[in-house]
Specification:
- This protein is of the alpha/beta class.
- The chain has 3 domains: about 325 residues, Vaccinia Virus protein VP39 (Rossmann fold), CATH 3.40.50.150; about 110 residues, no CATH class; about 100 residues, no CATH class.
- Helices cover about 30% and strands about 20% of the residues.
- The chain has 18 helices and 31 strands.
- The chain has a 10-stranded mixed beta sheet, sandwiched between helices. Strands 11-12-19-18-15-14-16 form a 7-stranded antiparallel beta sheet, with no helix packed on it. The protein has a 6-stranded mixed beta sheet with strand order 1-31-30-29-28-27, with helices on both faces.
- A hairpin with a 2-residue loop joins strand 2 and strand 3.
- Helix 5 packs parallel to helix 8.
- The protein is globular, with a radius of gyration of 28 Å.
- The mean pLDDT is about 90.
Length: about 650
């Protein structure tokens, strides 16, 4: 009997990392039982229910590849990994809202899924390109033992040999697709309803990736195949010099539009800063209001005496004898709306006694009400399918790395401008959008998020996943890691790049704020440049020793890491929140939710009251791997949940 079964049989409520129940199969059994026999689908019956023609002689249309069943099983397979805090590589661990996970991204995505399912606004990935030079080999474990674990023991020897050959062959389209399939399936699970994924790719797999994404995300959710011009001179190793790559983009659902990008234009209005046009500052999106965007709901105050020839007046964020007319954001129906800018950004654009320098002004309408306007110096337009700006070039990514490390420690990193464009199309400075990159590489995505937040005052967060891929000894990155006492892995470069980029951004803002003549209320806020780093380590499991006795393995993770694993598994509280310590190495809480590891500590006389108090004030979750069924727990069986 397993450790988990002991708790189940004792009547405890058990929470698992992933719910293995197949909701679709359950739905079919309940509503269309004729389509299911045992755990198998009767395809002819299902086609009849769907009103589709049943004719096995007619070939279907779609993408098929060797190892597809393995890829699907890999997607469903429960991860055997958990997280371990790495404070040495973290920055401001306790308060940072950004994360870097070090380990295989397939495991990382499964760990993230419990809490972040349906929450990621933008995903950017630059997966390994399947080229002769890179010699892509299927990296996921697959052998006879793994096939049995995946429930594929009925594979014939011929089919098994065929898969092994495909997975072990260089430049194998089958292996590459089997590698990408489960990761993209998990990416779709993580995307928000209005979320978008961008995937960089080249000619070797672009066509196959398009078909794969059509299937996973839906052909109707295809946004575009963008062409970034990464090398205008052309790579001349083929008959035609290649100047571009591809950037496939898909949405989670059929969204009607994405953000437009800003472009310059000629203006008829001018001040000392140049041309502009007036644009209403009120946010016209009906779903935004003071209830869900409280930071965007505040008052402006107008000085009607300081007015220009067109009727525009200066504004302030403080009421005074001169600034006494209050304006709050309301829509045309008189319902609460919000401003497009946060209060800090608005304040930095106000010059109360200078019509020329103030970038926010007010004007009275014919009905007597007032509107707030910004001096907009840019207009927006839809993004084009070809991105040929100089910032998109690969050489810029190399320069950006060199500027931080004084040497090239990463080959062909993506430029910040490429990721920045993706962020501008899909995220907003007024939202707490989450951006994910699970092929993080040098960390360009995290750098781009922090940089954009610094520019527009946004509060975006990033999650990066990077495998602990060993760096070859002949690479400059290897020498850099050894000289700086870092593990000689790509993930060390990822973390160090984010650390240095954040420090550079913070220093630039502090220097700007330190300039004389800048009032405190006009100083720029420093964005979150911290990040939590977690290593992936083996999760606890039960094993048999030589005498046939059951024993626990891999239970030596530190208590706080076990608490974070519970937070991820339960999926209620934000994993970037700082747990409040109630009893060291045992009881922690976030809000009204309590998380307990090393539960035997609560059996001690001086600690017994902690559990009863926790149950009175909120929900209680107990780490099943460090708990045993004792009298104390049995007394509270109905009030706690055991987490595995």
């Amino acid at each position: 009997m397993t450790h988990k079964e002991n708790f189940i049989n004792a009547g405890f409520s058990v929470v698992e990392t992933e719910n293995s129940e197949n909701c679709l199969l359950k739905y079919l059994k309940e509503n269309y039982p004729q389509t299911v026999r045992g755990s198998e689908i009767k395809w002819d019956e299902l086609k009849n229910v769907l009103g589709l023609p049943v004719d096995e002689k007619v070939n279907g249309y779609g993408l098929n590849f060797v190892g597809r069943n393995v890829a699907n099983a890999k997607y469903k397979q429960k991860t055997a990994k958990e997280l371990k805090i790495n404070e040495a590589l973290s920055k401001n661990f306790d308060n940072a809202q950004n994360m870097i996970l070090k380990g295989d991204n397939l495991d990382c995505l499964k760990i993230l899924k419990s809490y972040y399912s349906g929450q990621i606004k933008c995903i950017y990935i630059d997966p390994p390109y399947n080229t002769t030079k890179d010699e892509f080999i299927y990296p996921d474990k697959f052998d006879k033992e793994e096939a049995e674990v995946l429930g594929l023991a009925n594979i014939s020897e011929t089919d098994f040999d065929r898969m092994q050959f495909s997975f072990g062959s260089k430049k194998s389209h089958n292996g590459w697709l089997a590698f990408m399939y489960p990761r993209l399936m998990l990416a779709r699970d993580l995307l928000a309803k209005d979320g978008v994924i961008f995937i960089s790719i080249d000619d070797n797999e672009q066509a196959n990736l398009k078909l794969l994404c059509d299937e996973i995300f839906g052909e109707e959710n295809f946004i575009g195949n963008i062409i970034p011009v990464v090398n205008p001179g052309g790579r001349d190793y083929k008959q035609i010099a290649v100047t571009h790559e591809y950037l496939l983009s898909y949405s989670k659902t059929d969204i009607s539009e994405i953000n437009e990008i800003e472009n310059g234009k000629e203006f008829s209005l001018f001040d000392s800063l140049g041309g502009f046009e007036y644009r209403e500052l009120r946010n016209r999106n009906p779903k935004f209001h003071s209830g869900n965007r409280p930071n965007l709901f505040y008052s402006f105050y107008v000085n009607p005496a300081m007015k220009d020839d067109n009727g525009y007046c200066t504004v302030s964020l403080k009421r005074s004898a001169d600034y006494y007319i209050e304006i709050k954001p309301y829509n045309s129906e008189g319902k609460e709306s919000v401003w497009r800018w946060g209060k800090t950004k608005a304040n930095s654009n106000i010059a109360e006694n200078d019509m020329d320098k103030s970038q926010i002004l007010a004007k009275q309408k014919n009905d007597g009400n007032w509107n707030i306007y910004e001096k907009s110096r840019l207009t927006t337009t839809k993004a084009k399918s070809v991105w040929s700006e100089t910032g998109m070039r690969t050489e810029n990514g190399t320069r950006e790395i060199r500027a931080l490390f004084n040497e090239t420690v990463f080959d062909h990193p993506k430029p910040i401008a490429l990721i920045d464009r993706c962020l501008q199309l899909t995220t907003n400075d007024s939202d707490d959008d989450i951006i994910l990159d699970f092929f993080a590489g040098s960390g360009t995505t995290g750098h781009a998020v922090m940089q954009l937040n610094a520019e527009d005052g946004g509060n975006r967060k990033f999650i990066l996943c990077q495998k602990d891929e060993t760096i070859n000894e002949d690479k400059p990155a290897y020498q850099f890691c050894t000289e700086n006492n870092l593990p000689t892995a790509i993930s060390s470069i990822t973390c160090e790049r984010i650390k240095r980029a954040g420090e550079k951004i913070q220093k630039e803002i502090e220097e700007k704020n330190g300039n004389s003549g800048i009032f405190d209320e006009n100083k720029q806020e420093i964005p979150d440049v911290g990040f939590k780093v977690f290593d992936l380590t083996d999760a606890p499991k039960l094993e048999l020793n030589d005498e046939g006795q059951i024993f626990l393995q891999n239970t030596d993770n530190d208590p706080l890491s076990r608490i974070y694993n519970m937070i991820f598994s339960v999926g209620i509280d934000n994993p970037t929140a700082k747990p409040e310590c109630i009893l060291a190495n045992c009881l922690y809480k976030i809000g009204n939710n309590h998380y307990i590891t090393n539960a035997e500590e609560l059996d001690k006389t001086e600690n017994k009251h902690f559990l009863s108090e926790a149950i009175k004030t909120g929900k209680v979750f107990i780490d099943g791997w460090t708990a045993s069924i004792n009298t104390t727990l049995q007394n509270y069986m109905e009030d706690v949940k055991i987490v595995f």
